[in-house]
């Protein structure tokens, strides 16, 4: 009787009215499984092992059986042991979306890149939105830079533009990368995010101060992935079919507008939904409210560069107004969520060195370091053949790279595996429009605090300046006194008003009594198995 009732309970069905009511009142992210069942009113197939053996019903349990003769059990158990891959060192926590890029303006005068030419042309893209320092599964509601990496599947190869939501970067020397990351991640002893690490590094490397001001300002905490701009940071060299060179900074400008969260609002949302950014993006796409960004480029000619009074290749500063012109190119639209986030999001591999003809790319030292480092990290995470994984596979490829860990796909079949050869293996092409001259950049070691001062005085409003001070004060509260003094000194050198406000705000905050501990629930009696349930208060 009990067994019969259990079977009936497992086959309870809902009326059509109940299902429709559920779908209408539930957000897309929560009704995904129900929608799958509606699309597949019957099971999608017969269960098998990974080798394709059909699984018989009695093999789906190991109770009262010889479990180690059960191939389904062994196959499933051992696969679970190995189903995780190394998480990204940075930007580990993120989500992906498919979409397209559409050319809206003729820019053939400036670049011969096929992907950016032909008004109305559409190119398939994949984008990955992410937090910079959070571990895989970390909260979206943290004050730090947010990333968007876009892969364009062009007929000339994959073009990867890796962006952050701040228009300036934190350092100019690639040797700083690992130390910068460590200072932004968890304390190796406490396994906690420690503001002392970050502030210590900023004061030891003052070229970080401009980027740090952006993070501590409203821009450091946008209201979701859809409502922020994105910037590939570097100054890119581009060229047209005649070999004429130009220098540009690409910008992705959100068509959803720009919105920010206060620390208080972020804390309230994060306590309820740490995946707020991911959920917002997923639901928007599922509801047909496709997020989009206009792609434009700020452009300077070689002759104009020679007359500038600042370094346009410096990642830690903005270009000065009036020294460049802005040219629209097109727009990116994300209109499809992945069916499987691991397959597309986790297995996606981006490299700023993935460029196409007409976009030779940046020449600064940070970029040179990144194009090597990113390839190395993807090889560590995904294997040497990561560009043959479906989400990374270019539209066309002919290589002499062979073998290694899967996927190798057809492994170039029986074609010659060395170059040059006399037997008609792949051959390179000649690009007559490729510029012959090379532009060399000499970078100074001196730190220029002027861009940070201009951001504070000219970019921010008075209300935004005060919020930046308040955020900085809260961040400095738990750090040692000597480090607090170093931060105040650096901020005073940047701008006297900024340093004075932070010093006064910190002094006032330190005089205030600490907040009371949060309320907790405690047992009012010792728990005993032979007694009734304990009471709580």
UniProtKB/TrEMBL annotation:
User: What are the names of the required cofactors?
Assistant: heme
Please give the superkingdom of this protein's source.
Eukaryota
**Membership in a protein family:** Belongs to the catalase family.
Name the UniProt record assigns to this protein: Jg6358 protein
Composition-biased stretches (Basic residues): 525-537
Region of interest (Disordered), residue spans: 508-537
What gene is this protein translated from? Answer: jg6358
- Gene Ontology BP annotations: hydrogen peroxide catabolic process; response to hydrogen peroxide
* Residues holding heme: 374
What UniProt keywords are attached to this protein's entry? Heme, Hydrogen peroxide, Iron, Metal-binding, Oxidoreductase, Peroxidase
- What positions does the domain Catalase core occupy? 48-427
- A molecular function GO annotation: catalase activity
Tell me yes or no: is Lipid biosynthesis among this UniProt entry's keywords: no
GO annotations of cellular component type:
cytoplasm
């Amino acid at each position: 009787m009990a067994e019969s009732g259990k079977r009936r309970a497992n086959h309870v069905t809902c009326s059509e009215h109940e299902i429709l009511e559920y779908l209408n009142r539930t957000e897309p992210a929560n009704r995904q499984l129900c929608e799958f069942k509606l699309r597949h009113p019957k099971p999608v197939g017969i269960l098998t092992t990974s080798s394709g053996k059909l699984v018989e019903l009695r093999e789906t349990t190991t109770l009262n059986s010889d479990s180690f003769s059960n191939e389904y059990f062994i196959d499933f158990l051992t696969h679970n042991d190995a189903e995780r891959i190394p998480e990204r060192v940075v930007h580990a926590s993120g989500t992906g979306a498919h979409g397209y890029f559409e050319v809206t303006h003729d820019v053939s005068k400036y670049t011969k890149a096929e992907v950016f030419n032909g008004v109305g042309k559409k190119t398939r893209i994949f984008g990955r939105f992410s937090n910079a320092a959070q571990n895989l599964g970390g909260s979206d509601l943290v004050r730090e830079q947010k990333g968007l990496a876009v892969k364009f599947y062009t007929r000339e190869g994959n073009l990867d533009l890796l962006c952050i939501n701040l228009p300036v970067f934190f350092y100019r020397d690639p040797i700083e990368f690992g130390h910068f990351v460590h200072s932004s991640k968890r304390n190796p002893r406490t396994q906690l995010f420690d503001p002392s690490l970050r502030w210590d590094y900023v004061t030891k490397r003052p070229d970080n101060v401009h980027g740090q001001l952006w993070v501590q300002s409203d821009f450091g905490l946008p209201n979701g992935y859809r409502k922020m701009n994105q910037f590939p940071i570097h100054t890119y060299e581009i060229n047209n079919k005649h070999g004429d060179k130009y220098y540009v900074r690409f910008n992705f400008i959100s068509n959803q507008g720009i919105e920010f969260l206060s620390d208080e609002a972020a804390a309230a949302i994060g306590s309820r939904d740490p995946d707020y950014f991911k959920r917002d993006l997923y639901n928007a796409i599922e509801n047909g409210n496709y997020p989009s960004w206009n792609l434009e480029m700020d452009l300077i000619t070689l002759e104009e560069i020679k007359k500038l009074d600042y370094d346009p290749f410096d990642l830690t500063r903005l270009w000065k107004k009036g020294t460049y012109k802005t040219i629209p190119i097109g727009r990116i639209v994300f209109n499809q969520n992945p069916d499987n986030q691991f397959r597309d999001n986790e297995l996606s591999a981006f490299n700023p060195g993935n460029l196409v003809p007409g976009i030779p790319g940046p020449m600064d030292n940070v970029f040179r370091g990144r194009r090597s480092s990113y390839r190395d990290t993807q090889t560590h995470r995904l294997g040497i053949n990561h560009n043959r994984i479906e989400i990374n596979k270019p539209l066309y490829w002919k290589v002499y790279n062979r073998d290694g860990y899967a996927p190798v796909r057809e492994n170039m079949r029986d074609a010659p595996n060395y170059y040059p050869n006399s037997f008609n293996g792949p051959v390179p092409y000649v690009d007559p429009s490729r510029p012959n001259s090379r532009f060399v950049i000499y970078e100074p070691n001196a730190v220029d605090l002027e861009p940070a001062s201009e951001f504070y005085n000219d970019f921010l409003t008075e209300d935004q300046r005060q919020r930046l001070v308040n955020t900085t004060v809260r961040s400095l509260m738990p750090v040692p006194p000597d480090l607090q003094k170093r931060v105040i000194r650096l901020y005073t050198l940047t701008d006297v008003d900024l340093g004075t406000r932070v010093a006064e705000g910190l002094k006032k905050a330190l005089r205030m009594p600490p907040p009371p501990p949060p309320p907790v629930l405690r047992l009012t009696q010792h728990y005993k198995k032979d007694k009734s349930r304990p009471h709580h208060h």
